[in-house]
Amino acid sequence: MQKLTRIITLSVALTVVSGCSYVGVYKRDIPQGNLVNQEMVSQLQPGMSKEQVTYVMGRPLLEAPFDASQWDYVFRLDKAYGDVEQRRVTLTFDPQGRLANIEQQGDLSSDLPFESDDGMGPATEGTNPMDSLTDENMQLQAPSRTQPVSQP
């Protein structure tokens, strides 16, 4: 009976410790969609072709499936410990494929607080990972060759 009590107590303790954390959970900002800002939108002018718009804004996140005359550029930033910021730019084209209307939603003028990742991370496919190392990193990772080699 005493052995059963110990097993049950140990299992309950492990369940509580592993499932319920009072320390907190790490969260990170989640950006999604096309990053759009006021500088990009200010370059747009009515009468621009779709190719010119694509050069300035990039490919749209959403193209209406039944009506190719409307492009939506949507950006959403779900802040880890804050609110959700959403920006949307809707572009409408006339039947000749020229930009006719620009609609904006959200604050496009504010800068987004992206943190820079100074970690090494994975290398981009097709590149040499050693090319991204700085001289300082190379000295930290390379074995020291200043010791004399003893010869027999």
TrEMBL record:
Origin species: Vreelandella neptunia
What does the function comment of this entry state?
A: Part of the outer membrane protein assembly complex, which is involved in assembly and insertion of beta-barrel proteins into the outer membrane.
Q: Which UniProt keywords apply?
A: Cell outer membrane, Lipoprotein, Membrane, Palmitate, Signal
Subunit composition? Part of the Bam complex.
Compositionally skewed regions (Polar residues) per UniProt:
125-152
Q: Which domain of life is it from?
A: Bacteria
Q: How does it sit in the membrane?
A: Lipid-anchor
Q: Which residues form the Outer membrane protein assembly factor BamE domain?
A: 33-102
| Keyword field contains Lyase | no
Family to which this protein belongs? Belongs to the BamE family.
This chain's protein is named: Outer membrane protein assembly factor BamE
The family database entries (PROSITE patterns) matched by this protein are listed as: PROKAR_LIPOPROTEIN
Q: Which InterPro entries match?
A: BamE, BamE-like, BamE_dom
Q: Where is this region: Disordered?
A: 100-152
Main localization is membrane
Subcellular location per the Swiss-Prot or TrEMBL entry: Cell outer membrane
